[in-house]
Amino acid sequence: MEILERKPYAYRTSFPLDEARIRLPDGDEAVVLVKELGRLGLDDAILRAKPEFVYDPRREIAVYEKILTGLDLGTARCYGSVVAPESGRYVLFLEKVDAAELWQLDEIEAWERAARWAARLHGKASPEPQVPLLRYDGAYFRPWLERACSFHPGRTVPALASAHERALARLAGLPAVFVHGEFYASNILVSKGRVCPVDWEMAGIGPGLLDLAALATAWEGADRARIVAGYADERDAPVDEEDLDAARLVLAVQWLGWAEGWAPPREHATDWLAEATAAARRFAA
After folding, report:
1. φ and ψ at residue 93, rounded to 5 degrees
2. How far apart are alpha carbons 123 and 117 in whole angstroms?
3. Is 195 helix (H, G, I), strand (E, B) or coil?
4. Residue 229 burial (CB < 10 Å; 0-12/13-18/19+)?
5. How far is residue 203's CA from residue 45's CA, in Å, rounded to a whole number?
6. 2 and which of 23, 32, 181, 240 could share a cystine (Cβ 3.0–4.6 Å)?
7. Which candidate, 242, 226, 230, 239, places its Cα nearest to that of 279?
8. What is the pLDDT of residues 191-215, one digit of tens each?
9. What are the structural domains, with CATH classification, of the chain?
């Protein structure tokens, strides 16, 4: 693969993104996104905001190359990668997908399609032992509450402790499947005929409802019910609302404990304390 032209991409997530025109080994050309996953590409603010213990630059590369390839789920084509631990370079070459981010779409049908896509992922994808996936279990989630209490002093966050533990017990009884880990609207591209989640940096093994809870964040009432119903219909099994609230609670606490002083871009902001408090009512003593 030969890079013919490369320039910074207008949009980036945590990691730098470039747009490039490449020549493939068969002589064809393609326009791709070049994602630099090494910590050398991160500025100081992002380095401080990204907990070291969840970071592994190999994870997203391995997810594309060993899990998503061949599943026919519409994910971005992976054209190749660079894995060079000696220099700290980890690079992904991905298809540039022509689609809108889900958060920009008001039509509930698009969100329902994303929920159905998540159910298909959870039914089709199999974890690979060579992929350094996160394990979304009690040992993973408990430290986030401790961090959240230290970052948000006062009685509100510590008061979530008992509900948080009940939620973890609830989730421990659910099947563990391959999950995206950050199945939020800002990480899902949608076009007329395609749903394409991106940014698999937090992919792991855990209850599938973690992805559904992330997708349904901030939705209430009939619209939220449609999202949940789409997921349930696609997997041909009902969703227990108590299980879903357990997932909502542990995810909200995770973001409260993500990093001291951290906040997402304004267009993706969520009141995680309100989200955690609402979900915790289900598990009140």
Report:
1. -110, 110
2. 10
3. strand
4. middle
5. 23
6. 23
7. 242
8. 999 999 999 999 999 999 999 999 9
9. 2-95 (3.30.200), 100-283 (3.90.1200.10)
